[in-house]
Write a structure and sequence with these properties.
This protein is an all-alpha fold. The chain has two domains: 215 residues, Growth Hormone, Chain: A, CATH 1.20.1250.20; 249 residues, Growth Hormone, Chain: A (Up-down Bundle), CATH 1.20.1250. Helix 4 runs antiparallel to helix 16 and helix 12 packs parallel to helix 14. About 3% of the residues have low confidence.
Length: 547
């Protein structure tokens, strides 16, 4: 009896043969993450879209046209607050889709998930472009918000399990490289989108529709190349000369067993790590959105050498300090991205638990110092504190997949990571609500603008204390939570794991999966050049701050 040959996208077809270079997998992951990371930069479209009909000036909707009216109206422009719902949907759908389809991803493999992600993310942008053309906001919500959000979730978790299995010796570094790309996506996409909109702008168009189409096509090429570049190691593969650690040590908690994703909702350690991520992200994401107005309101005219408070500045001076604040925001984005690789790599040495202790203790000290540095008028201490905070915000994202692999095993870590991302969706609401509403409340009490953030900083310190306690409570799992030998064997069968890579290669008539060194170099250049360009453009903005 003959069995059908595995399909082009099936997991069996991407089991690496002898001679495969594992360093080809991180650029494949980066190719996808750099594209979907543009979700962070979608705000670059809000202002042009808010005058898509009026072109020069927005055609305002009447008082009778509410949010639902704007979904279908073709006679007036959308409000920026309405457009912002796309941004909210991105991260709600990222968490929910990753949680929903994480188990499918483990069985289908990263290539199939990567292809579906490319189709959803890029197809969603094309559908949104049609929505811009027809001036139908519901199409943009469905296209980029919902369909694109699903692609966002699948693309985000697609490389996690694969990278951890390829780099058992450097789990943190491997996931840090990929998730660094997600943070860097907006650094490339935002200036690219701005340049394209400027190029396509005309007396009858703000250039957003054409920009969506061009970026969708560029992203599709990169994401498909990344998906096709994925390979998974054979079962039990280990790097040459490396031996898996045995037992427990003072700074490493690594299990040799595996938890099924269906069980994680009932495991206390999962919820402790859920709270660890939620508190870390809530504190960080809360200040990201308010970083620019915070700097302007706290330091006012001193940012441009004028001895006036924020409320005393004229229009020209307000524009000048806004330019300085934009440079501050760009500086934070560099630390956000760099922190993802730095802290995740450092966690391979310190251990994941101790790394998060550093996040919460050092981060708490930084938040606590902000009111003092603001009162002293020290922009250096103020900016320095937020740079460290944002590096640890990014580092928290990049370190948590390795933390999960240590505690829950590697067999279904991608699916478990998907479930954990519901903490991100929660934090995306909690953090901004705390910061924004506390600011409004403080202003309502008549507190001066330069002092309205003080109480908020102390609340964020409290969040980090909660995260620290949860992290300290994390312990190795009891044996009852792990799959037994029969359950693990069945899961490996469903996941198409092969004990020997050549089982598939020989059946298909293939040979060794040797990759020439120059191919690996080209792959890194392909993702490295756009990233360097993004860093360069961001550095130009940072220069405005230091000027």
């Amino acid at each position: 009896m003959t069995t059908a040959s595995p399909g082009w996208l099936d997991k069996e077809r991407i089991i690496a043969g002898p001679g495969f270079n594992r360093w080809l997998v991180p650029p494949a992951a980066l190719a996808i993450h750099l594209c979907i990371g543009m979700a962070y930069g979608f705000s670059v479209f809000w202002l042009p879209l808010s005058k898509a009909l009026g072109i020069k000036e927005a055609i305002k909707c009447g008082p009778d046209v509410g949010f639902f009216g704007q979904l279908f109206t073709t006679t007036c422009d959308w409000q920026i607050s309405t457009l912002g719902w796309m941004y909210t949907l991105f991260f709600v759908l990222l968490g929910s889709s990753a949680a929903t389809w994480g188990g499918w991803l483990e069985r289908a493999g990263p290539r199939k998930a990567g292809v579906v992600s490319a189709l959803c993310w890029c197809g969603g942008m094309l559908f949104s472009a049609l929505g811009v053309y027809l001036h139908q906001f519901w199409m943009m919500i469905l296209g980029s918000g919902v369909i694109g959000g699903i692609g966002l979730g699948l693309g985000y978790i697609s490389p996690v399990s694969t990278l951890i299995k390829w780099f058992p010796d450097r789990r943190g570094m491997a996931t840090g490289m990929a998730i660094m790309g997600f943070g860097g996506g907006a650094m490339i996409g935002s200036p690219l989108a701005a340049d394209l909109m400027k190029y396509f702008a005309s007396p009858t168009s703000v250039g957003v529709m054409q920009t969506f189409v061009v970026m969708a096509l560029i992203y599709f090429v990169f994401m498909m190349a990344g998906a096709l570049g994925y390979r998974v190691p054979e079962t039990g593969w280990m790097p040459k000369g490396w031996t898996a650690p045995t037992g427990m040590s003072s700074n490493v908690m690594i299990t040799k067993h595996h938890v099924h994703v269906k069980k994680v909702w009932g495991i206390p350690q999962f919820w402790l790590i859920w709270m660890v991520l939620c508190m870390n992200v809530s504190a960080g994401i809360g200040v990201i959105g308010m970083a620019s107005p915070m700097l302007q309101e706290v330091f006012g005219g001193s940012l441009i050498g004028v001895a006036k408070k924020f409320g005393e500045l004229d229009k020209a001076q307000l524009a000048a300090i806004a330019s300085v604040a934009a440079g501050f925001t760009a500086l934070l984005s560099l630390f956000n991205i760099g922190g993802r690789f730095f802290w995740a790599s450092l966690s391979d040495k310190l251990g994941r638990k101790l790394t998060y202790v550093v996040f919460f203790v050092l981060g708490g000290a930084m938040y606590f110092s902000v009111p003092g540095s603001a009162a002293a008028g020290s922009t250096v201490l103020f900016v320095g504190a937020f740079c460290v905070i944002l590096s640890m915000y990014g580092g928290g994202f990049a370190t948590v997949p390795a933390y999960l692999a240590d505690i829950f095993g590697t067999q279904m870590v991608g699916a478990i990571h998907g479930r954990l991302l519901t903490a991100w969706a929660t934090a995306g609401v909690l953090g901004p609500v705390v910061v924004n509403y506390m600011r409004e409340y403080q202003l309502g009490l008549g507190i001066p603008r330069e002092q309205v953030y003080n109480q908020t900083m102390y609340i964020l310190v409290g969040m980090l204390v909660v995260g620290l306690i949860c992290n300290l409570l994390v312990r190795p799992l009891d044996d009852k939570w792990f799959m037994n030998a029969e359950e693990l064997a069945e899961e490996k069968r469903l996941a198409h794991d092969k004990a020997v890579s050549n089982e598939v290669h020989r059946a298909d008539g293939g040979g060794a999966d040797t990759v020439p060194t120059f191919v690996v170099v080209l792959a890194w250049v392909a993702v490295g050049l756009p990233l360097c360009w993004g860093v360069y453009r961001t550095t130009l903005s940072v220069a405005k701050f230091f000027a």
